[in-house]
From TrEMBL:
Gene Ontology process terms (BP): polysaccharide biosynthetic process
Modified residues (N6-(pyridoxal phosphate)lysine): 187
InterPro entries attached to this UniProt entry: DegT/StrS_aminotransferase, PyrdxlP-dep_Trfase, PyrdxlP-dep_Trfase_major
SUPFAM superfamilies: PLP-dependent transferases
GO MF term list: pyridoxal phosphate binding; transaminase activity
CDD domains reported for this sequence: AHBA_syn
Keywords: Aminotransferase, Pyridoxal phosphate, Transferase
Species of the source: Paracoccus jeotgali
Transferase listed as a keyword: yes
Ranges annotated as spanning the membrane: none
Protein's name according to its UniProt entry: DegT/DnrJ/EryC1/StrS family aminotransferase
A Pfam cross-reference name: DegT_DnrJ_EryC1
Length: 372
């Protein structure tokens, strides 16, 4: 039997080659390939409009997190309270800045950092909180704003999964002190590699210095790095921009199609929509019991569909993060039992109605087959 062509989870939005070439030729004509070229400036201004907050472009979402943490002026070795249910970049950024991640438990419904557990994790060494809008589920922003204000903590959101989302019509970038966005190819809005820091506390002059070696007037005045975005990446970003409205419409329709096709499959729970929150644009995720989840991943792969087993729990990951402690307010943490139940389905404009029907049929078969 002929195999259907691959349907992958994170297919990037691909601009036309001629659109990219036209943009790149502007950079070539201007004679600047990086260090704040014309394309970079244009994309930066567009991004601030899209995010509804002042901000700066950087070379990746990881760099965005690091700069956002550095903007807090936190003491060396400070503790940062965060979630164990996220991608490696969240804690790698904390560690690469010389800070210490302290894990607190997540809310069992939204899968995002629980504000009460985060408060229980605060010690005299805590300087910041770093919640993650995980899989497009938006954190309890009101509770975190209140917590950060009461305890005098820097509040950075990892918004890598939340581009384009709003809470009661307010951009996610408007909450906390700063938010870090990823513009990696697997995100909706992307520049192949790239990121952005934005938010109410975005001192854009200082962010521009931090991403450029901490230089001011040619002199090193602060703890900077090289986090600049090149003109090649900015060209990609600008070429992707006009494709966003159609892609967003396609993803909204795909979410509705998945919801309808998967709604009554026993033991399979698509992540619930949040009241007042514009649904996520990067992931469509399900929860199901761990043995079935592994069988579903294998059955989908057999059918030419590459779903993702997002995301392994970060606490206790070998020598890198040996401390498996997760602070809770009562009893056992829930995060370790949630991580092995999560799966993200292909979620982009090239997924067809037939693909959804096939994915639903495979999911139903796995769900209804008795465990061996
Ligand atoms: N915070 C959070 C919560 C994050 O999830 C991330 C990144 C960050 C911070 C940091 O942002 P960045 O520093 O990365 O900007 C991907 C991405 O590299 C990473 O950006 C992302 N999160 C993470 C969740 O996933 P991989 O290693 O899982 O991607 P890969 O190569 O396995 O590709 C995924 C799927 O997409 C596959 O089915 C293949 C397909 N694909 C991928 C690429 C890159 C394509 O079809 N074409 C492509 O060009 O990391």
């Amino acid at each position: 039997m002929e195999r259907p062509s691959l349907v992958v989870a994170g297919q990037p939005l691909m601009p036309r080659a001629d659109a990219l070439t036209r943009l790149m030729s502007e950079a070539l004509d201007a004679g600047f390939l990086t260090n704040g070229g014309v394309l970079h400036q244009r994309l930066e201004s567009e991004m601030q409009g899209l995010l509804g907050a002042p901000g700066r472009l950087v070379s990746s979402g990881t760099m965005a997190l690091m700069l956002a943490l550095r903007m807090g002026g936190l003491p060396e070795g400070a503790e940062i309270v965060t979630t164990p249910l996220t991608f490696a970049a969240t804690v790698q950024a904390i560690r690469w800045c010389g800070f210490r991640p302290i894990f607190a438990d997540v809310d069992p419904v939204t899968l995002t950092l629980c504000p009460r557990a985060a408060e229980a994790a605060i010690t005299p060494r805590t300087a910041a909180i770093l919640p993650v809008h995980f899989l497009g589920h938006i954190c309890d922003v009101a509770a975190f704003d209140d917590l950060a204000r009461r305890r005098g903590l820097w509040l950075v959101y990892d918004a890598a999964h939340a581009f384009g989302q709003t809470v009661h019509d307010r951009s996610v970038a408007s909450f906390g002190d700063l938010s870090a966005f990823s513009l990696h190819a697997t995100k909706l809005m992307h520049s192949a590699e790239g990121g952005a820091v934005a938010g109410p506390a975005a001192d854009v002059e200082q962010l521009a210095r931090l991403r450029n070696f901490g230089l001011q007037g040619g002199r090193m005045t602060q703890h900077g790095t090289n986090a600049k975005m090149s003109e090649c990446n900015a060209a990609m970003g600008l070429a992707v921009l006009p494709l966003l409205p159609a892609e967003i419409a396609a993803r909204d329709a795909l979410r509705a199609a998945y919801d309808a096709a998967l709604q009554d499959i026993p033991g399979v729970t698509p992540l619930a929509a949040q009241p007042g929150v514009r649904p996520g644009l990067i992931y469509y995720s399900l929860m199901l019991p761990p043995p079935k989840r592994m069988r579903l991943l294998a059955a989908l792969a057999e059918g030419g569909i590459l779903a993702r087993d997002h995301f392994p729990l970060l606490s206790g990951q070998g020598t890198c993060l040996p401390d498996a402690r997760i602070v809770t307010v009562s009893g056992e943490p829930v995060a370790p039992s949630l991580a092995p139940r999560l799966i993200s389905l292909p979620f982009h404009g090239k997924v067809t109605g037939d693909d959804v029907a096939r994915i639903a049929a495979i999911t139903r078969k796995v769900a209804e087959t008795a465990d061996p």
